[in-house]
Amino acid sequence: MAERIRRPRARVCERCGREERFDDATGSWVVADDAVGAVYCIHEWDINGSFVPFEDGASEA
Predict the structure, then answer these.
(1) What are the tens digits of pLDDT across the range 26-37?
(2) Which residues pair with 5 in a beta bridge?
């Protein structure tokens, strides 16, 4: 089966704790409603973490 690439739905900065979610309507990241974190932080998103961008096509059957 073919694998599909998926994107994360949420992310958290490892430096300041800022939380963002992906908004399908705008096609971009938006700050969570109960946002914490520093506005001027150079955000470091966990790009090498446990998120796996590939879905197994068999799970959609």
Answers:
(1) 988 898 877 777
(2) 54
Residue 21 covered by a domain = yes
Q: Report pTM.
A: 0.64
| 32 φ/ψ angles, rounded to the nearest 5 degrees | -60, 155
- Using CA atoms, how far apart are residues 35 and 10, in angstroms rounded to an integer? 13
- The domain total for the chain is 1
**Domain coverage including residue 46:** 9-50
pLDDT at residue 19 is higher than 80: yes
| Those residues with Cβ within 8 angstroms of residue 7's Cβ, 6 or more apart along the chain or in another chain | 22, 53
Supply φ then ψ for residue 58, to 5 degrees: -70, -25
